[in-house]
Amino acid sequence: MSENVLKLPVYDLYQQDYLPTEVVYYNTLLQYLYPDAKFAIGDVSGFIEKEDSPGAIASLKKGWETFKLSGATNSRRLGRAIFAQSEEDSTPDHFLRLLGSNRAAANYGSNLTTECQLITTLTLRIRIVEDGKFRTGDCHAKASALLFKTLGCKPMCRSNSVL
User: Which end of the chain is less enclosed by CB atoms within 10 A, N or C?
Assistant: First the structure.
């Protein structure tokens, strides 16, 4: 797979201006799934430093220019969220569409910006089970040895299951 680079400008929502830096991501699902979308980082750390939570929340809801809140990544640690360009009266749903709820988009949005070793398209049969069944849990899954072989990976075996 060729390396794909996603460069996001950073907008300071407190100062209402673009910062001279950008955030660079390599080989992400966000870029793979939405190659034509325009994303940017909205930074509310200035509000956090001033302990102005209402200001941070209001600026996240408002966005800037044509950018509106889409999801989060490093939001708790850095005070940043991902915004997407959107039509005036619509809300971008890039994260919501995949993660199912605003809470999940905030908690697990970084999964879309995590660097991937391999991005490919496969037809798979999957079974979704209740959390905790079959020794699964948050961010855990089981896969067959054939899937690992198809992906060019070595399976990691634990007892009778292939993880």
Answer: N
SS3 label, residue 82: strand
As given in the structure block, the two tokens for residue 71 are 């999801």
* DSSP for 30-43, written as a single string: HHHH-TT--EEEEE
DSSP state of 124: -
Distance between first and last Cα of the chain: 24
Output the tens digit of pLDDT for each of the chain's 163 residues.
456 889 999 999 999 999 999 999 999 988 888 888 899 999 998 998 889 889 988 998 899 999 998 888 766 667 888 999 987 666 677 888 888 887 887 778 888 888 887 787 888 877 777 776 666 666 566 677 788 787 777 766 554 444 4
| Burial call 57-71: b when 16+ CB within 10 Å, e when fewer | eebbeebbeebbbbb
